[in-house]
Design goal:
Number of helices: 19
CATH class of the largest domain: Mainly Alpha
CATH topology of the largest domain: Growth Hormone, Chain: A
Strand content: under 5%
Shape: globular
Distance between the termini: 31 Å
Oligomer: single chain
CATH superfamily of the largest domain: MFS general substrate transporter like domains
């Protein structure tokens, strides 16, 4: 097999592993009513089927990315895939609430460990800028469209068999992906534990992120302004401040603060957090609207999001690289955000009971176009100037800001939507009108968030156009070629 074909096969293997992880974030949502009925979950207890995964995943991404730099990314990727697959079996076998929640937590650990190093491995596989743009386009499609795939697969499997099989299907795919990965992916030794084994720093940032995410997801039960939330948030913030101080003074920091001296790194991570909030907010609240207000079933909900996935696939895989080559990554990032903002505004201003083909299909397609343009360009900019020894760290950081930012954003959006719904219900509105009013307000906020990301992207666009053009984007560690 030629070197070129081997690299693309490696990318396919990495994307298959990542698809397992991304799909698992949404496939569970469709099956939640069945899980609640079988295991007797309360409404607040049921949320932990999702939250346990989210807490582990968001809390461990940064640490996992750095460990990949130190001991070898292939080794870390395979270990994470093995943990994820084994935990999936435990989820499927679960016969009680504690077992399922614990297994979901372990599944989140596996997902974080494997996904944190994937971007760094892609950077290594594709040093040539045009090919890297194509690779990032494929990866971005998998990352963004996985939500829709999860909704469709969740509805199909739950209706055809049972909720247990949404987890069991990961076993053959995980084993096959692991075996092929072990054979196809090139081995790497890492830079050695002595280069950055800041154990205390790792514990501090992981604890801060996990406690922070835990605090966020608990706001649905205790409120954003409760004493419990304030105390937990203060402890999490204290741990984070202590971590930053340690990184500034330590000899082998797990997160070298020099990374943030780059306007590209700081800006792209801000954009990643805000865009993740907008996109995840649309998918999450859109699913609820289609189910609770429009009366869609599980399969219909998944199919309704197909235009997002299809258009995103076309642009991420086929057109994004060429557009970035011609106009620059920064310009495509801004264009994609503008299209996404228009799509979210159309949904936010739409009727309570929209006709799908008249009011929803076009915004869905536009949102796919916005994501297909934005995410590959964002990833290109974020990873462009990162040294090889920090590639796993930068990859983990970008994923972390997306997950943690998205988790925080979802909590805030859900609170905004819930508050608006409650106000409308108290004012005499019927349930459908009240729920719809909350969702539409949240989508308006999502559109507003994209305006903020456009401002952040404008800072990136201040770079010289020559640096933005694809042919001049420096590969990691190839500064001499820039």
């Amino acid at each position: 097999m030629g070197m070129k074909n081997s690299r693309w096969l490696s990318l396919l293997v990495l994307c298959t592993g990542f698809l397992l992880i991304v799909v698992d974030m949404t496939i569970v949502n469709v099956a939640l009513p069945s899980i609640q009925k079988d295991l007797g979950f309360s409404q607040s207890g049921l949320a932990w089927v999702v939250n346990a995964y989210l807490i582990a995943f968001g809390g461990l991404l940064l640490l996992a990315g750095r460990v990949g730099d130190l001991v070898g990314r292939k080794r870390v990727y395979l270990a994470g895939l093995a943990i994820f697959t084994a935990a999936s079996v435990l989820c499927g076998l679960s016969f009680g609430q504690p077992m399922l929640i614990a297994a979901r937590f372990v599944q989140g650990i596996g997902g974080a460990v494997s996904s944190a190093v994937i971007l760094a491995m892609i950077v290594t596989l594709f040093p040539e800028p045009l090919e890297r743009a194509k690779a990032f386009g494929i990866f971005s499609f998998v990352a963004s469209a996985g939500a829709a795939v999860g909704l469709i697969a969740g509805g199909l499997i739950t209706q055809a068999v049972s909720w247990h099989w949404i987890f069991f299907v990961n076993l053959p795919i995980g084993i096959a992906t692991g075996l092929v990965s072990a054979k196809v992916l090139a081995s790497d030794r890492g830079i050695g534990l002595g280069k950055g084994a800041d154990v205390l720093g790792a514990i501090m940032v992981t604890a801060a992120l996990m406690l922070g995410v835990y605090t966020i997801v608990q706001t649905s039960d205790y409120g954003l302004v409760s004493l419990r939330t304030a105390v937990l948030a203060t402890v999490a913030l204290g741990l984070l401040v202590g971590f930053v101080v340690r990184q500034a003074r330590g000899r082998n920091p797990i997160l070298p603060l020099r990374l943030f001296r780059s306007r590209k790194v700081a800006g792209t991570n801000l954009v990643q957090a805000l865009m993740s909030t907008a996109f995840l907010g649309f998918f999450f609240l859109g699913s609820l609207d289609l189910q609770r207000v429009q009366g869609y079933g599980p399969m219909a909900i998944g199919l309704a999001f197909l235009p997002v996935a299809v258009v995103m696939a076309l642009f991420s895989v086929r057109f994004s690289a060429q557009l970035i080559a011609r106009f620059g990554a920064g310009a495509m990032l801004a264009a994609g955000q503008l299209v996404a903002m228009i799509a979210l505004a159309m949904v936010a201003l739409g009727p309570i009971h929209p006709d799908y083909f008249v009011h929803l299909m076009l915004p869905m397609a536009l949102l796919g176009l916005g994501g297909g343009l934005s995410f590959p360009a964002l990833t290109m900019i974020a990873m462009a100037d990162v040294a090889p020894s920090d590639a796993g760290l930068a990859s983990g950081l970008l994923n972390t800001t997306g997950q943690v930012g998205g988790a925080f954003g979802l909590a805030v959006l859900a609170t905004i939507a819930g508050g608006r719904t409650l106000d409308l219900a108290r004012g005499g509105a019927d349930l459908a009108v009240a729920l719809s009013g909350g969702y539409h307000l949240a989508w308006t906020v999502c559109a507003g968030l994209i305006i903020v990301t456009l401002s952040a992207a404008a800072l990136l666009l201040r770079e010289k156009r020559a640096e933005q053009r694809l042919n001049d984007v420096p590969c990691a560690g190839c500064e001499a070629a820039a």
